[in-house]
Specification:
264 residues; alpha+beta; five-stranded mixed beta sheet; 10 helices; 32% helix
Length: 264
């Protein structure tokens, strides 16, 4: 049973799941809430049982069943007494969605949309275990791990302006590939430049309606504009890195007698 806080916030009360330390909150409309699975709500409650959680276990409007946390789940944990989870919201480290804007209008693309879609399927490797056409040396892989998007731009896969629109300019400080297992590197190396599987996608989209003219102008968006939406992650490399560290933490769970509501 969820408690309605307002038109777009619904609360999972303490008591929904044994051991909850804080309530859960789902930011969603009533219409979208009808599509949320019961198991997803249970996962929101499960996260609320974790030590050190702050205020609420939260879920965004796209919440759906995940592994551990629900996909779309958000939680903050105190530095003192809180938990660290390398695979909270799924295994796919750095999984996310990015939109690329173009200067094209829908009318420019409409006559060639079929050919464009065929070219994308041909040129963008996708699917379980898909390998890319990109071949990189060990040194280049090291640069990709440490410099992130900066390496990609230097290698010709983007422009400098792209970095200005990425968190931390596309590079998180302190990355050390020496802590990444050889198995993770072997899995990730042939998959650079691939899309993956599951709910990952590459879509050609059109800006249908502008709701905030000033904000749209700042982002360079206009009605009828063609954009490209990409949903991808770190493929086998991220999955293996997460697997490696979950094995370490599973030993700690047993060592310290930590009780988890769900082994995921």
């Amino acid at each position: 049973m969820l408690n309605k806080v307002d038109d777009y916030v619904f609360e999972v009360p303490i008591g929904h799941q044994k051991g909850m330390r804080v309530p859960g909150r789902i930011f969603i409309s009533e219409k979208l809430l009808e599509q949320v699975e019961t198991e997803t709500i249970d996962q929101v409650a499960n996260v609320a049982t974790l030590p050190g959680i702050v205020n609420h276990s939260m879920a965004m409007p796209d919440a759906h069943l995940g592994y551990g946390f629900p996909i779309g789940g958000v939680a903050a944990f105190r530095e003192d007494g809180g938990v660290i989870s390398p695979g909270g919201v799924g295994f796919d480290i750095n999984c996310g969605v990015r939109m690329l804007r173009t200067n094209l209008r829908a009318g420019d693309v409409a006559p060639m949309i079929s050919n464009l879609v065929e070219d994308l399927f041909h040129d963008v490797p996708s699917g379980v275990g898909a390998k890319g056409r990109l071949r990189v040396s060990e040194h280049e892989l090291y640069q990709a791990f440490t410099r992130g998007a900066g390496w990609a731009v230097e290698a010709g896969f983007g422009v400098e302006e792209d970095l200005e629109h990425c968190e931390e300019n596309g590079q998180l400080g302190g990355a050390n590939p020496d802590h990444v297992s050889l198995k993770a590197k072997k899995r990730g190396r042939p998959q650079l430049g691939t899309l993956g599987s599951g709910n990952h996608f590459l879509e050609i989209q059109r800006v249908d309606k502008i709701f905030d003219e000033d904000l749209a102008k700042r982002f360079g968006l206009f009605e009828g504009q063609i954009t490209v939406m990409i949903h991808c992650g770190s493929r086998g490399a991220g999955h293996q890195i997460c697997t490696d560290h979950l094995q370490v933490l599973n030993k700690a769970v047993r060592k310290y007698g930590i009780e988890l509501p769900d082994k995921q």
